[in-house]
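Researcher: Next sequence.
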Amino acid sequence: MKILSMDDVSLSFGGLKVLSDVSFEVNKGEIFAIIGPNGAGKTSILNIISGFYRPEKGKVFFADNDITCLGADKRAALGMGRTFQNIALYHGMSVLDNIKLGAHTHLKTGLISSLWYWGSAHREEIKLREKIEEDIIDFLEIESIRKKPVSALAYGLQKRVELARALAMRPKVLLMDEPVAGMNAEETEDMARFILDIKEEHNITIVLIEHDMKMIMDISDRVLVLNFGQALTQGTPGDVQKHPEVIKAYLGRKKA
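Model: Next structure:
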């Protein structure tokens, strides 16, 4: 059953065509990868799905609802989370406080009760912290750093904290922009394991873009290949690797 789809989406910046009539469907509970050379339009697709860009043509659907004209905040409230290629954390804040920011769309406390912190706002804050510590911090194995400022953490741990903040949004679909970029082999293996566990244990659908082809082919259920803003093909990792146009786009030659 599909949970997310793009229907004939096109996007241009001035005279530059970024995407041309791109269509695909993402099934509930799968890991759907988008790959392609630099400049193929991968991040633009994530920006359209998450509401940062609006396509000049085509539609975006989430859980059978047309969200093409919805803002990013409303999409987040519907159940869409995201991590970014360039880490977008508050470096002066602690790990726990950064993660809690991801849950703000689900807080029920109003402005007046928030000002009177020792009332319902305080109780909700305690409940939120306990939920995060039980469901997310333990899951991502970052208990030992939860009180540390983000600025004191190594790059790989910062990426893990950003993932934790996205999970705190309780997403139905998690968009991941190059989750292992800049990581060493051990960190990449850890992140791949977490992505698989997020799918299996939390039943979250994942859409990711990544240049690490080994990881993509190991963990993805289906793969969409882009080149110059157009969809070359999509299918299982095994089918995609054998496709002649994919081989040509990546290796610069036709399949022998």
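Model: The chain is about 40% helix and 25% strand. Residues 109-116 have pLDDT under 50 and may be disordered.
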